[in-house]
Amino acid sequence: MSTNLQSKLGEGLSKFQGGIEQGKLKLQTVQEINKIKKEMHEASVKKSKILLEAGQKAYKKIRNHELQDEELVELTSKLTELDHAIYEGAKKISELKSNPDQNVTICASCETPNESDAKFCGGCGAKVEKAAEPVAGAVDACTSCNEPLTPDAHYCHCCGTKAAR
Questions:
Q1: What is the pTM of this model?
Q2: Rounded CA separation 111/126 (Å)
Q3: What pLDDT was estimated at residue 135?
Q4: What gap in Å lies between CA 145 and CA 147, rounded to an integer?
Q5: In the predicted model, is pLDDT for residue 132 greater than 60?
Q6: Residues 6+ away with beta carbon under 8 Å from 149
Q7: Which helix (H) or strand (E) holds 6?
C-alpha cells in the first residue's frame, strides 16, 4: 500500500512540476510577445514622426511652388484654409487681449498685460513689442492664402509663404 501511495504522490508531483514548466513557458512566451509589441510600438512612433516631418516638408515645397502634384496640391489647399482659420482666430484673441480702451499691451512671450508705454514686460522682462500699425496705401496679398501683407514682410504672416516681390 505504501508503494501505491508513493507512486500516486510521485505522479502528482510530476504533474505539478509539468504544470510549473508549462506555466514558465507560457510566461516566457507572453514576455517575448510583449517585448515584440513594445518594439513595434516604438517603430510605429518613429515612423509617425518621420511621416509628419516628410509631410511638413512636402507641404512647404508645395506652398512655395517647388513641388507640383495635383493630389498634394488639393490636400494643401485644405491645409491652407485651416492655416487661415487658425491665423484669424489667433488674431482675434490678440485683439481681445489688447483692448485699446484699457491702454494695455500684452507681452508676446508670457502674455502679461503691460502699460502701453512699457518698454519691457513686468512679468518676464522681455522687450515689449508694439503691434505694427496698418500702413495706408497699396498692400500686397499673399499668393497662397490672400492674406494682406505689410510692406516690409518677406513671408506671409498667416501661412509662411514667401512674399512674391
A1: 0.49
A2: 11
A3: 45
A4: 6
A5: no
A6: 139, 140, 141, 142, 156, 157, 163
A7: helix 2-63
